[in-house]
Design brief:
alpha+beta, 24% strand, globular
């Protein structure tokens, strides 16, 4: 998970993203990677993947794992130590979703953030 955050920060620097956008994206990526790690039960030979794309003023970050069960946000009680990740993703992103992988096993969970005008675009 730390590797994914490091790579995202490096890419965000090359794209010249605003620091607040980078920090929000890094936090939300960490939430999705943690969920994939905890819940995907990835069988041997399967991996968790992430992809980041910047296009048309939107930063799109996706995490793919080998578990077909689609996640749903839940209401965590104040006493719960977990269960707030997707609620956080929904609150801080401009859009998010989850869908089965059309070409294989598992699912992809993604979020998008608007990027300030004047940011360098890349793919």
């Amino acid at each position: 998970m730390s590797r994914a955050r490091t790579l995202l920060r490096e890419q965000a620097t090359s794209w010249e993203l605003a620091p607040d956008t980078t920090e929000t994206a890094t936090l939300l990526l960490s939430e999705l990677m943690t969920n994939a790690y905890r819940h995907a039960t990835v069988p041997p030979g399967r991996e968790i993947w992430t992809r980041c794309v910047l296009k048309a003023g939107r930063l799109h970050i996706a995490v793919t794992d080998a578990n077909a069960a689609l996640p749903t946000p839940r209401q965590a009680s104040p006493e719960d130590e977990t269960g707030r990740g997707l609620t956080l993703v929904a609150a801080l992103s401009d859009d998010w979703g989850a869908e089965p992988r059309p070409e294989g096993i598992g699912k992809t969970v993604w979020f998008e953030l608007s990027v300030a005008p004047g940011t360098t675009t890349g793919t």
